[in-house]
Amino acid sequence: xxxxxxxxxxxxxxxxxxIIPSWVEQPPEPEAITVRLDPGLAFGTGNHxxxxxxLEWLAGQELANKRVLDFGCGxxxxxxxxxxxxxxxxxxxxxxxxxxxxxxxxGKANEIASERLQATLPEAxxxxxxxxxxxxNILANPLIELAESMSRHLLPQGRFAxxxxxxxxxxxxxxxxxxxGLIVDGIRQNGDWSLIFGHxx
Length: 201
Description:
Elements: H1 2-7, E1 11-13, E2 17-21, E3 33-37, H2 49-59, E4 67-71, H3 77-84, E5 89-93, H4 97-109, E6 117-120, E7 131-137, H5 140-145, H6 147-153, E8 154-166, H7 170-179, E9 183-190, E10 193-199
Parallel strand pairs: 2-3, 4-5, 4-7, 5-6, 7-8
Antiparallel strand pairs: 1-2, 8-10, 9-10
Helix pairs in contact: 2-3
């Protein structure tokens, strides 16, 4: 276990956001905004390039008082990071019940008030729920299939980021979201992986 624990070190995203293992006592710096996380059952510790892309994007957003949808929440890392960065509330959605449990548990471990963090299966997300910020780190094909639905959940002037996308798939995903009425502002890459970001008018 020691070797495994040594490999999971504090990681910085943007200027102030840090993901740190639960066994690290001190925040890495006084101004740090920290999310404590154990690499447990559900995907998402910040080590994977797509999670890193999403965390860096979130760290650069103005999240104060915004409602955030984290689609494919896994460990809840993105929803919890958004709340720590000032979001009013976050809704984590995943098809895996273990991910929903992990999201709730990680929220508690990070002292997030339970009313600020919901975690549900996709079918339990109200169709009329609106969000100012949407982040989805799943895979290219589901992202394309969900484009219309995702677009409906994003409020006017809302911002979105999509990842879990291999570089060669990015254009097809971006086109699906343009067809769904959203504006694609750009694509960022980390190794083999892409993040698409944009907004609704």
